[in-house]
Write a structure and sequence with these properties.
Radius of gyration: 41 Å
Strand order of the largest sheet: 2-11-14-13-12-15
Structural class: alpha+beta
CATH class of the largest domain: Mainly Beta
Strand content: 35-45%
Number of domains: 4
Distance between the termini: 56 Å
Length: 336
Protein backbone atom coordinates (compact mmCIF):
# COMPACT_ATOMS: atom_id res chain seq x y z
CA UNK A 1 0.00 0.00 0.00
CA UNK A 2 2.77 2.39 0.86
CA UNK A 3 4.44 1.74 -2.47
CA UNK A 4 1.22 2.49 -4.33
CA UNK A 5 0.70 5.79 -2.51
CA UNK A 6 4.21 6.89 -3.33
CA UNK A 7 3.60 6.26 -6.99
CA UNK A 8 0.37 8.24 -6.99
CA UNK A 9 2.00 11.08 -5.16
CA UNK A 10 4.82 11.22 -7.64
CA UNK A 11 2.39 11.29 -10.54
CA UNK A 12 0.51 14.20 -9.01
CA UNK A 13 3.71 16.18 -8.64
CA UNK A 14 4.64 15.61 -12.25
CA UNK A 15 1.22 16.72 -13.43
CA UNK A 16 1.32 19.86 -11.30
CA UNK A 17 4.77 20.75 -12.60
CA UNK A 18 3.64 20.27 -16.19
CA UNK A 19 0.68 22.60 -15.75
CA UNK A 20 2.92 25.30 -14.27
CA UNK A 21 5.32 25.05 -17.22
CA UNK A 22 2.50 25.45 -19.67
CA UNK A 23 1.29 28.59 -17.94
CA UNK A 24 4.83 30.04 -17.99
CA UNK A 25 5.22 29.46 -21.73
CA UNK A 26 2.03 31.39 -22.40
CA UNK A 27 3.32 34.52 -20.66
CA UNK A 28 4.86 37.30 -22.86
CA UNK A 29 8.71 37.31 -22.96
CA UNK A 30 10.59 39.83 -20.87
CA UNK A 31 12.67 42.37 -22.83
CA UNK A 32 15.08 45.12 -21.84
CA UNK A 33 14.51 48.58 -23.30
CA UNK A 34 16.58 51.73 -23.54
CA UNK A 35 16.00 55.25 -24.83
CA UNK A 36 18.28 56.91 -27.42
CA UNK A 37 20.89 59.24 -25.96
CA UNK A 38 22.50 62.42 -27.26
CA UNK A 39 26.25 62.47 -27.79
CA UNK A 40 29.10 63.13 -30.20
CA UNK A 41 29.19 61.24 -33.49
CA UNK A 42 32.03 61.26 -35.98
CA UNK A 43 31.66 59.86 -39.48
CA UNK A 44 35.05 58.99 -40.93
CA UNK A 45 36.73 57.11 -43.75
CA UNK A 46 39.43 54.67 -42.67
CA UNK A 47 42.64 54.26 -44.63
CA UNK A 48 46.13 53.00 -43.90
CA UNK A 49 49.02 55.31 -44.70
CA UNK A 50 52.79 55.62 -44.58
CA UNK A 51 54.85 58.45 -43.13
CA UNK A 52 57.08 60.04 -45.77
CA UNK A 53 59.10 63.24 -46.19
CA UNK A 54 57.26 66.07 -47.91
CA UNK A 55 60.43 66.86 -49.90
CA UNK A 56 62.97 64.06 -50.39
CA UNK A 57 66.24 64.74 -52.24
CA UNK A 58 68.37 61.84 -53.52
CA UNK A 59 72.09 62.67 -53.88
CA UNK A 60 74.32 60.60 -56.18
CA UNK A 61 77.74 60.91 -57.87
CA UNK A 62 77.72 62.06 -61.48
CA UNK A 63 80.49 59.65 -62.49
CA UNK A 64 81.40 56.10 -61.50
CA UNK A 65 84.09 56.20 -58.83
CA UNK A 66 85.30 54.71 -55.56
CA UNK A 67 83.92 56.13 -52.31
CA UNK A 68 86.84 57.29 -50.15
CA UNK A 69 85.26 59.24 -47.29
CA UNK A 70 81.86 59.60 -45.57
CA UNK A 71 81.54 62.82 -43.58
CA UNK A 72 77.86 62.61 -42.49
CA UNK A 73 75.51 59.76 -41.69
CA UNK A 74 71.84 58.94 -41.17
CA UNK A 75 70.00 61.21 -38.78
CA UNK A 76 72.47 64.10 -39.15
CA UNK A 77 71.19 67.63 -39.70
CA UNK A 78 73.34 69.22 -42.42
CA UNK A 79 73.72 72.75 -43.78
CA UNK A 80 73.54 73.91 -47.37
CA UNK A 81 76.93 73.45 -49.06
CA UNK A 82 78.23 71.02 -46.43
CA UNK A 83 80.37 68.21 -47.87
CA UNK A 84 78.78 64.84 -47.13
CA UNK A 85 81.07 62.40 -48.97
CA UNK A 86 84.17 62.28 -51.19
CA UNK A 87 85.18 60.03 -54.08
CA UNK A 88 88.58 59.10 -55.47
CA UNK A 89 89.88 61.97 -57.66
CA UNK A 90 93.65 61.42 -57.94
CA UNK A 91 93.50 61.07 -61.73
CA UNK A 92 91.54 64.31 -62.04
CA UNK A 93 94.09 66.05 -59.83
CA UNK A 94 96.85 65.04 -62.23
CA UNK A 95 94.80 66.23 -65.19
CA UNK A 96 94.21 69.60 -63.53
CA UNK A 97 97.96 70.02 -62.85
CA UNK A 98 98.73 69.22 -66.47
CA UNK A 99 96.16 71.63 -67.89
CA UNK A 100 97.23 74.35 -65.45
CA UNK A 101 100.76 74.08 -66.85
CA UNK A 102 99.36 74.32 -70.38
CA UNK A 103 97.46 77.47 -69.44
CA UNK A 104 100.61 79.09 -68.04
CA UNK A 105 102.56 78.18 -71.17
CA UNK A 106 99.82 79.52 -73.45
CA UNK A 107 99.73 82.80 -71.52
CA UNK A 108 103.49 83.27 -71.81
CA UNK A 109 103.31 82.56 -75.53
CA UNK A 110 100.51 85.10 -75.83
CA UNK A 111 102.59 87.76 -74.05
CA UNK A 112 105.53 87.13 -76.35
CA UNK A 113 103.46 87.25 -79.51
CA UNK A 114 101.58 90.33 -78.34
CA UNK A 115 104.89 92.25 -78.15
CA UNK A 116 105.91 90.98 -81.57
CA UNK A 117 102.51 91.90 -83.02
CA UNK A 118 102.71 95.43 -81.61
CA UNK A 119 106.09 95.85 -83.35
CA UNK A 120 104.60 94.35 -86.52
CA UNK A 121 107.07 91.45 -86.52
CA UNK A 122 104.25 88.84 -86.86
CA UNK A 123 100.95 88.77 -88.67
CA UNK A 124 97.58 89.21 -86.98
CA UNK A 125 96.74 85.53 -87.56
CA UNK A 126 99.64 84.41 -85.39
CA UNK A 127 98.54 86.71 -82.58
CA UNK A 128 94.91 85.53 -82.86
CA UNK A 129 96.05 81.91 -82.62
CA UNK A 130 97.87 82.68 -79.38
CA UNK A 131 94.78 84.31 -77.93
CA UNK A 132 92.69 81.29 -78.96
CA UNK A 133 95.17 78.84 -77.40
CA UNK A 134 94.85 80.61 -74.03
CA UNK A 135 91.03 80.51 -74.21
CA UNK A 136 91.02 76.81 -75.11
CA UNK A 137 93.41 75.92 -72.28
CA UNK A 138 91.42 77.90 -69.70
CA UNK A 139 88.19 76.26 -70.83
CA UNK A 140 89.80 72.84 -70.45
CA UNK A 141 90.94 73.79 -66.94
CA UNK A 142 87.44 74.91 -65.92
CA UNK A 143 86.02 71.64 -67.21
CA UNK A 144 88.54 69.57 -65.26
CA UNK A 145 87.88 71.54 -62.07
CA UNK A 146 84.12 71.08 -62.57
CA UNK A 147 84.59 67.34 -62.98
CA UNK A 148 86.57 67.28 -59.76
CA UNK A 149 83.62 68.85 -57.92
CA UNK A 150 81.59 65.87 -59.11
CA UNK A 151 83.77 63.76 -56.83
CA UNK A 152 82.22 65.32 -53.72
CA UNK A 153 78.59 65.24 -52.62
CA UNK A 154 77.33 68.39 -50.91
CA UNK A 155 74.01 69.26 -49.31
CA UNK A 156 71.87 71.41 -51.63
CA UNK A 157 69.74 72.71 -48.72
CA UNK A 158 69.55 72.63 -44.95
CA UNK A 159 68.21 69.12 -44.43
CA UNK A 160 68.20 65.85 -42.48
CA UNK A 161 69.82 62.68 -43.79
CA UNK A 162 67.14 59.97 -43.62
CA UNK A 163 69.04 57.22 -45.46
CA UNK A 164 72.59 56.44 -46.60
CA UNK A 165 73.83 53.73 -48.97
CA UNK A 166 77.39 52.71 -49.84
CA UNK A 167 80.54 52.14 -47.78
CA UNK A 168 84.07 53.49 -47.97
CA UNK A 169 86.06 51.60 -50.60
CA UNK A 170 82.98 50.65 -52.61
CA UNK A 171 82.81 51.65 -56.26
CA UNK A 172 79.49 53.34 -56.98
CA UNK A 173 77.99 53.90 -60.39
CA UNK A 174 76.88 57.27 -61.69
CA UNK A 175 73.42 58.42 -60.53
CA UNK A 176 73.26 55.71 -57.86
CA UNK A 177 72.01 57.61 -54.75
CA UNK A 178 74.27 57.63 -51.72
CA UNK A 179 72.15 59.92 -49.52
CA UNK A 180 68.44 60.64 -49.20
CA UNK A 181 67.68 63.99 -47.61
CA UNK A 182 64.45 65.31 -46.12
CA UNK A 183 64.13 69.05 -46.13
CA UNK A 184 62.11 72.20 -46.44
CA UNK A 185 58.87 70.96 -44.81
CA UNK A 186 57.60 68.61 -42.05
CA UNK A 187 56.87 64.98 -42.83
CA UNK A 188 53.46 63.94 -44.13
CA UNK A 189 51.32 60.81 -44.48
CA UNK A 190 50.44 59.27 -47.80
CA UNK A 191 47.24 57.19 -47.47
CA UNK A 192 45.41 55.00 -49.98
CA UNK A 193 41.64 55.62 -50.03
CA UNK A 194 39.25 53.22 -51.75
CA UNK A 195 37.59 54.55 -54.89
CA UNK A 196 34.14 54.10 -53.32
CA UNK A 197 35.08 56.49 -50.51
CA UNK A 198 37.24 59.05 -52.33
CA UNK A 199 34.19 61.06 -53.47
CA UNK A 200 33.61 62.00 -49.81
CA UNK A 201 37.17 63.20 -49.22
CA UNK A 202 37.94 66.93 -49.55
CA UNK A 203 41.03 69.02 -48.89
CA UNK A 204 40.98 70.66 -45.48
CA UNK A 205 39.15 67.80 -43.74
CA UNK A 206 40.36 66.81 -40.28
CA UNK A 207 42.18 63.50 -39.97
CA UNK A 208 42.59 61.45 -36.78
CA UNK A 209 45.87 59.52 -36.79
CA UNK A 210 46.74 56.49 -34.67
CA UNK A 211 49.39 53.78 -34.60
CA UNK A 212 50.29 50.66 -32.66
CA UNK A 213 53.56 52.39 -31.81
CA UNK A 214 51.60 55.00 -29.79
CA UNK A 215 48.49 53.08 -28.64
CA UNK A 216 47.32 55.70 -26.15
CA UNK A 217 47.66 58.75 -28.39
CA UNK A 218 45.62 60.23 -31.22
CA UNK A 219 47.18 62.88 -33.46
CA UNK A 220 45.30 65.34 -35.64
CA UNK A 221 46.21 66.07 -39.24
CA UNK A 222 44.56 67.58 -42.30
CA UNK A 223 43.94 66.52 -45.90
CA UNK A 224 46.21 68.66 -48.08
CA UNK A 225 46.00 67.01 -51.50
CA UNK A 226 44.24 64.25 -53.45
CA UNK A 227 45.85 62.71 -56.51
CA UNK A 228 43.55 63.19 -59.54
CA UNK A 229 44.47 59.78 -61.02
CA UNK A 230 43.78 56.56 -59.15
CA UNK A 231 45.57 53.23 -59.22
CA UNK A 232 43.57 50.88 -61.50
CA UNK A 233 45.00 47.77 -59.82
CA UNK A 234 44.31 48.62 -56.17
CA UNK A 235 41.32 50.83 -57.10
CA UNK A 236 42.42 53.51 -54.71
CA UNK A 237 43.49 57.14 -54.71
CA UNK A 238 46.46 58.62 -52.89
CA UNK A 239 45.64 61.23 -50.26
CA UNK A 240 48.31 63.49 -48.72
CA UNK A 241 47.84 64.32 -45.04
CA UNK A 242 49.73 66.99 -43.12
CA UNK A 243 50.88 66.24 -39.57
CA UNK A 244 51.64 68.46 -36.54
CA UNK A 245 55.18 69.77 -35.98
CA UNK A 246 55.74 67.55 -32.94
CA UNK A 247 54.65 64.42 -34.83
CA UNK A 248 56.90 61.65 -33.44
CA UNK A 249 56.45 59.05 -36.22
CA UNK A 250 59.56 58.10 -38.18
CA UNK A 251 59.72 58.02 -41.98
CA UNK A 252 58.40 54.70 -43.24
CA UNK A 253 56.13 53.97 -40.26
CA UNK A 254 52.56 52.81 -40.88
CA UNK A 255 49.71 54.97 -39.62
CA UNK A 256 45.97 54.38 -39.28
CA UNK A 257 44.05 57.40 -40.54
CA UNK A 258 40.39 58.31 -40.12
CA UNK A 259 39.36 61.13 -42.44
CA UNK A 260 36.46 62.94 -40.76
CA UNK A 261 33.70 63.62 -43.29
CA UNK A 262 30.97 64.60 -40.82
CA UNK A 263 30.94 65.50 -37.14
CA UNK A 264 28.03 66.16 -34.78
CA UNK A 265 28.15 67.08 -31.09
CA UNK A 266 24.43 66.42 -30.51
CA UNK A 267 23.75 63.20 -32.39
CA UNK A 268 21.03 60.71 -31.47
CA UNK A 269 22.82 57.47 -30.54
CA UNK A 270 21.71 53.91 -29.88
CA UNK A 271 23.69 50.71 -29.24
CA UNK A 272 24.79 48.75 -32.30
CA UNK A 273 22.95 45.76 -30.85
CA UNK A 274 19.63 47.61 -31.10
CA UNK A 275 19.69 47.73 -34.92
CA UNK A 276 18.67 44.64 -36.84
CA UNK A 277 18.65 43.64 -40.49
CA UNK A 278 17.65 46.26 -43.04
CA UNK A 279 18.25 48.94 -40.37
CA UNK A 280 15.18 47.99 -38.35
CA UNK A 281 14.68 48.71 -34.64
CA UNK A 282 12.08 47.32 -32.24
CA UNK A 283 10.12 50.03 -30.44
CA UNK A 284 7.97 49.07 -27.46
CA UNK A 285 4.63 50.91 -27.28
CA UNK A 286 2.50 49.88 -24.35
CA UNK A 287 3.27 46.21 -24.14
CA UNK A 288 3.71 45.56 -27.87
CA UNK A 289 6.78 45.49 -30.13
CA UNK A 290 6.66 47.65 -33.26
CA UNK A 291 9.21 47.28 -36.06
CA UNK A 292 10.39 50.62 -37.43
CA UNK A 293 13.01 51.39 -40.12
CA UNK A 294 15.66 53.99 -39.26
CA UNK A 295 18.20 55.96 -41.23
CA UNK A 296 21.77 55.33 -40.08
CA UNK A 297 24.51 57.94 -39.93
CA UNK A 298 27.93 57.42 -38.37
CA UNK A 299 28.67 53.89 -37.16
CA UNK A 300 31.10 52.98 -34.38
CA UNK A 301 32.07 49.81 -32.58
CA UNK A 302 29.45 50.29 -29.87
CA UNK A 303 27.12 53.10 -30.98
CA UNK A 304 25.18 54.02 -34.10
CA UNK A 305 23.93 57.48 -35.07
CA UNK A 306 20.23 57.63 -35.94
CA UNK A 307 19.34 60.34 -38.47
CA UNK A 308 15.65 59.51 -38.92
CA UNK A 309 13.05 57.17 -37.43
CA UNK A 310 13.55 57.62 -33.66
CA UNK A 311 13.09 60.24 -30.97
CA UNK A 312 14.67 60.65 -27.55
CA UNK A 313 11.50 59.40 -25.85
CA UNK A 314 11.16 56.15 -27.79
CA UNK A 315 11.79 52.95 -25.88
CA UNK A 316 13.61 50.39 -27.99
CA UNK A 317 14.97 46.93 -27.33
CA UNK A 318 18.57 47.10 -26.19
CA UNK A 319 19.22 43.90 -28.16
CA UNK A 320 17.31 43.30 -31.38
CA UNK A 321 15.47 39.96 -31.27
CA UNK A 322 14.68 38.24 -34.55
CA UNK A 323 12.11 36.06 -32.79
CA UNK A 324 9.86 39.03 -31.99
CA UNK A 325 7.57 40.11 -34.80
CA UNK A 326 5.57 43.30 -35.23
CA UNK A 327 2.77 43.41 -32.64
CA UNK A 328 4.33 40.79 -30.38
CA UNK A 329 3.32 41.13 -26.71
CA UNK A 330 6.19 41.63 -24.25
CA UNK A 331 6.92 42.44 -20.65
CA UNK A 332 9.25 45.45 -20.29
CA UNK A 333 12.32 45.70 -18.15
CA UNK A 334 14.37 48.86 -18.51
CA UNK A 335 18.06 48.18 -19.03
CA UNK A 336 20.53 49.68 -16.61
Amino acid sequence: MKNKLLIVGSLAIVMATGAGAGAYLLMPPTVETITPQRGKAVEAIYATGTVEPTVMIPLAPKTTSRLTEILSDEGAHVRKGEVLAKFEDDDLGAVIDQITAQVELAKKELERKEKLFQRKFIAADAYDNAVSNVAVAEAALREAIAKRTYMTITAPEDATIIKRDGEVGETLTANDPVFYLSCCAPNRISAEVDEEDIVHVKTGQKVLIQSDAYPDKTFEGKVTAITPKGDPESRSFRVRISVPEDFPFLVGMTAETNIVTNESDNALLVPVTSVGKKNMVQIVRGNEVRLEPVKIGAEGKDKVEILEGLTETDKILSIYKDTLEDGHKVRVKEAE
